[in-house]
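Quick one, T. Sequence first:
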Amino acid sequence: MADLIVAISQVADGSMRNRNDHLDEVVIANRKKWLEKRGINIENATRVNVTFTDGDNYRRYRPVGEATKGQGMFDENTQPSDALVTITPGHALFLPIADCVATTIFDEEHGVLMLTHLGRQSLEQQGGFSSVQYLQENYNSRPENLKIWLSPTVNKEVYPIFKLDNKGMKEALYEQLEQAGVNLENVIDNKEDTATDPNYYSYSEFMKGNKPEDGCYAMVAMISKQ
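Structure tokens:
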């Protein structure tokens, strides 16, 4: 049986991404220290590099392995992606985030781990459904057996998704996961609200002047052994 590490950082751990300086030494030190507390070497991690410069595609799913360890953890030297997938024990997947839903999906039956970024743009493109579909089509995953962990997100009053009938991000995501065949009893949800909880960064609330600091918290996921 595989052991799985899934963790979410907080403001007290420091920002895990600087939008304006991708070589920020403080951010890199924050990543290293926080990961080490969980028994993870930063050089064994790969970052989900979410960018918004690839047209209108927000469903870029990228398999990674030994050759990609360390990519994106110290600089921007990694391919744009909306999700990473690994079958390698000891390979950590790392996603900085600040309002959207970081989502870990684990297929224990086939030893497959996905960390996927599900924000407004990806959810508008049914990103929750297609993340599960990708695992089903490429790794023979059975949706009903998947275990899923969700990060905190911002509430729907602060950030409604207009193209999805003003649903909140979690509301839309749960619908898409259920449509994909996921057993919702297998979903572990951190229900904290990034808009109001001081333990989490919120980009939307920072831009409104309601949060004192811009930054990102992070989700990390890793199969620790087989």
